[in-house]
Specification:
Structural class: alpha/beta
Helix content: 25-40%
Bound molecules: NADP nicotinamide-adenine-dinucleotide phosphate
Radius of gyration: 17 Å
Largest sheet: 7 strands, parallel
Strand content: 5-15%
Distance between the termini: 26 Å
Number of helices: 6
Shape: globular
Strand order of the largest sheet: 3-2-1-4-5-6-7
């Protein structure tokens, strides 16, 4: 098996966008634990409020760098990339984990019917779930073109167009479908420049985080994963990826999902 090779070196360099909590935070934790010489950049919009990420940094010291990265403020992405590019020549793994399904502050909730649609909420979903991830890649592009590397965009099965049998959740579904198209398009461009790159979309499965909290009642216990399990499962997929898998959409159990 030809592996993508990103995890074979001891001193891997990883960037996790959306590291303040939930799945992104757990990716930071597990990568630092499994790779004792890894350097992880944890991107989050308000480092001062990211208490759990700060606690993790107290445990691991300089192996975790917390860096401001607000998907609503493009200049923070440019500044983040400038800082990383001054210190690094490549990234082995880039994970885009930020995502939004509901937001008390703006009143965003998954829509049940067409009357629930709001232009500003749709814009917010697209900005965080799709556009932001691609802008992160745009600014970190100089670090992704040469070496073996993996870009993993955390998507959602409900973003699959052919798997949509229930309807509803317009903004979340459509923004994740947009992320999926971005993923495929990026896989094609990066594949032309870097034959050792893999770009994939991943469905984490329903995971016990703040994002899924309001929607957990109908989820059977064995289908609601602890965040530790979700990240362990997704890392298994990432370890096994080969460049032939680039441009694909994988579920938590390693099965391929239809776009
Ligand atoms: N949990 C599930 O069941 C499930 C299922 C399918 C897919 N997913 C996907 O998995 C990914 C991670 O979700 P999660 O469950 O870990 O959710 P979560 O615990 O709610 O975490 C969401 C993350 O997104 C970040 N974020 C929100 N707005 C941002 C912005 N403007 N700029 C930068 N970061 C921003 C949050 O940062 P702040 O702390 O600053 O708000 C937080 O780190 C998402 O893409 C989600 O769509 C989750």
């Amino acid at each position: 098996v030809i592996s993508s090779g990103w995890s074979e070196k001891a001193n891997i360099v990883v960037f996790v966008q959306g590291a303040s909590r939930g799945i992104g935070l757990e990716f930071c934790r597990q990568i630092l634990e499994r790779h004792p010489q890894a350097l992880v950049y944890g991107g989050c919009r308000r480092p001062q409020d990211a208490k759990k990420l700060q606690e993790l940094q107290q445990e691991v010291g300089k192996r975790l760098e917390i860096i401001t990265c607000d998907l609503n403020a493009e200049h923070t992405l440019a500044a983040m990339a400038k800082e990383i590019c001054q210190k690094q020549t490549h990234l082995d793994l880039l994970i885009n984990a930020s995502g939004i399904l509901h937001d008390k502050q703006s009143g965003l909730k998954p829509e049940k019917r067409i009357e629930d649609l709001s232009g500003s909420h749709l814009m917010q979903s697209f900005q965080i779930n799709a556009i932001g991830a691609m802008l992160v890649v745009k600014y970190l592009w100089p670090l992704l073109r040469r070496q073996p590397c993996v870009i993993a965009n955390i998507s959602a099965k409900v973003g699959s167009i052919s798997d949509n049998h229930l309807g509803g959740w317009y903004g979340y579904r459509a923004s994740k479908a947009a992320l999926n198209m971005f993923t495929k398009t990026l896989a094609i461009e990066l594949g032309r420049r870097n034959s050792e790159a893999s770009v994939v979309a991943l469905h984490p499965g329903t995971t016990d985080t703040e994002l899924s909290k309001p929607f957990q009642v109908n989820v059977p216990d064995d289908r609601l994963f602890a965040v530790e399990r979700t990240v362990a499962q997704l890392l298994e997929i990432l370890y096994k990826l080969t460049p032939a898998d680039s441009g694909r959409f994988f579920s938590w159990d390693g099965s391929e999902l239809p776009w």
